[in-house]
Amino acid sequence: MFLCGRYRFALDRPLVMGIINVTPDSFSDGGRHDSAAAAISHGLRLREEGADILDIGGESTRPGARPVSGQEELDRVMPVLEGLLHCGAALSVDTMKPAVMRAALAAGADMVNDVNAFRAEGAVEAVAGGESGLCVMHMQGEPRTMQAAPHYGNVVAEVCAFLGARLAALHSAGVARERLVVDPGFGFGKTLEHNLALFKSLGDLVDMAPVLVGVSRKSMLGLLTGRDVDRRMPASVAAAVLAVQRGAAILRVHDVAETMDAINVWQALGEQQ
Ligand code: HH2
Fold it and tell me: Which residue numbers are catalytic?
C-alpha cells in the first residue's frame, strides 16, 4: 500500500504520474505550460488520459538549470496546485525547498517529490507530520553541475546505500513506511552506463520500498535512439513497460495516454501466458 495524502494506492497495478512542468526551461516541455491556466488545462488532460498522480514542478532540474528563488517557485506552483486540487488525481509537488513543501502540503498536496531526498535543512521536518506520500530520489551532486563528471565505484551499491540511509532518516523522524517510495534518479549525476546499470538492477531497489522510475524523454533515451527530445515518446513508452516488468510501482511520464495503452496491453497479454 502507498499512502499518498487523500489517496491510498493498493499498488496492485502500476501507477502513472503525469508531469506538469510550470517552468520556462524544462528540458522537454519548457515554456509550454508556464502560465497557470495552461498548466491546469494540461493537468486536466493528463488526468483524463488516466494519470493517477500529477507531479507539479516549478524549478527545472535539467543539467545546468538555473536555481529559482522560493518565492518564484511558489508563484509558479501554488495556483496550479489550487486549480487541480479536486481533479481526481493525487497531487505531487516536485521541489527541493522546505518552504515550498510546507506551503504545498498546507494547501492540500498529497505528495512531495524531492530530487534532493529531503537533505535540505528543515526538509525532513517539513514533511514528517501528516500522511503525504514522499519520493526519495538519488542524485549525485546538484543540478547545475551534476553531469560534469559523474563517478561511482559501484553505482548500484552506492545508490542503494544512499536510499537506504535516507529512508532510515525519514523513519527515525516518524515517517511511516507506507508513505515512502524510492527512485534511483535516472540522469541525475549519471552517465549512460550508470543509468543502464541501475535500470538492469531495479529489482534490487524493489525490496527497499515501492520504486518510482522517471526516464521519460530523457537524454539516455536520446543516446540509445539518436532521437531529439520531441521524438522520444516511443522509446519512453518501451522503457516504461520494461520498468514495470522489473517491478516499478510508479512511472513518471510526459506521455500519459501512450504509457497507459502500453501498460494495459502488456498486462492483458501477460495475463494470458
Ligand atoms: N526527473 C526530473 C524531475 N523530477 N523526480 C523524480 N522523482 N524522478 C525523476 O526522474 C525526475 C524527477 C527531470 O525531468 P523533467 O521534470 O521532465 O524536466 P525538468 O527537471 O527540466 O523540469
Answer: 218, 252
Q: Which residues line ligand 1 (CB under 6 A)?
A: 19, 21, 23, 26-28, 57, 60-62, 94, 113, 115, 135, 137, 183, 185-186, 212, 214, 252
Q: What's the 12 CA to ligand 1 centre distance in angstroms?
A: 25
Question: Whose Cα sits closest to atom 15 in ligand 1?
Answer: 26
> pLDDT means per 10 residues in the chain (273 residues)?
98 97 76 81 98 97 87 96 98 98 98 98 98 98 87 97 98 98 97 98 96 98 98 98 97 98 94 56
Q: Tell me: domain 2-267, CATH 3.20.20.20, correct? A: yes
Q: Which amino acid is at 190?
A: K
- pLDDT digit string (tens) for 122-139? 999 999 999 999 999 999
In one-letter notation, the amino acid at residue 96 is M
Give the residue whose CA is nearest to atom 21 of ligand 1: 26
Q: What is the pTM of this model?
A: 0.96
Distant-in-sequence, close-in-space partners of 151: CB < 8 Å, separation ≥ 6: none
**Which residues make Cβ contacts (< 8 Å) with residue 268, sequence separation at least 6?**
none
